[in-house]
Design goal:
Elements: H1 5-14, H2 36-45, H3 47-72, H4 79-90, H5 99-119, H6 128-131, H7 135-154, H8 161-170, H9 177-201
Helix pairs in contact: 2-3, 3-4, 3-9, 4-8, 4-9, 5-7, 5-8, 5-9, 7-8
């Protein structure tokens, strides 16, 4: 049986946006239009092939980011990017893994967190790891996460790892202008490298937004 329109939207957002333009029955079908190494791995080993693909994609992109972080001595890799890399290669056709959702999610999450730091006067305060959680810090973190989730939902730009980015900023771990610029660069670097990796390895991942 076919699902309702709402079911299709939920599958498209968190699993495979191409479901909107495909007619299919039963469980989620393989990625439409896959080819190259991705298709070979899936045809040969099924879900185990998908696991190998996720491993390779995450290894290549995070290794690239990590190498540049080492060479430039800048924090181009931070915790929430691990979750983003996982989405890029585990559910590459989903809306949550599209470049649009990724860029909007992380950038808005960081901006909203910084706004609440300004509201509570914490932009130059020691981080929560150094000074612990006071009432103002706890309020800033909670409001940052809540506002990020609400705004991203309104924009249909859900990207769960952005929730971690907003905590990183609101907890005071990355707060200076230089650090926030590096954060933005790290997101862009991973997004671009993952897009090209998917395309080169046989996944027709969306160039910007997932199909609607």
């Amino acid at each position: 049986m076919f699902g309702t329109d709402r079911d299709v939207d939920q599958i498209a957002e968190y699993a495979d946006a191409s479901v909107r333009v495909m007619h299919r029955r039963g469980s989620l079908a393989p990625i439409s239009g896959r080819h190259g190494l991705n298709a070979w791995l899936y045809d040969r080993w099924g879900n185990r092939g998908n696991a190998v693909y996720t491993f390779l994609g995450g290894l290549l992109t995070i290794a690239l980011s990590g190498t540049l972080a080492w060479l430039l001595d800048e924090p181009l890799v931070f915790p929430s990017l691990g979750a983003t890399a996982f989405l890029f290669f585990e559910t590459p056709m989903a809306e949550v893994a599209s470049p649009r959702n990724t860029i909007i999610g992380h950038y808005l999450g960081a901006a909203i967190a910084y706004f609440w730091l300004l509201v509570f006067g914490l932009e130059h305060a020691p981080s929560a790891i150094q000074a612990g959680f006071g009432a103002d810090r706890a309020a800033a973190v909670a409001l940052s996460v809540a506002c990020t989730g609400g705004v991203l939902r309104l924009l249909r730009a859900a990207h769960p790892p952005a929730g971690a980015t907003t905590v990183i900023v609101s907890a005071g771990l990355l707060t200076s202008g230089e650090q926030l610029a590096v954060l933005a660069g790290g997101v862009a670097l991973l997004t671009i490298s993952a897009h090209f990796a998917n395309r080169l390895l046989g996944v027709p991942a969306p160039r910007w937004a997932a199909p609607r």
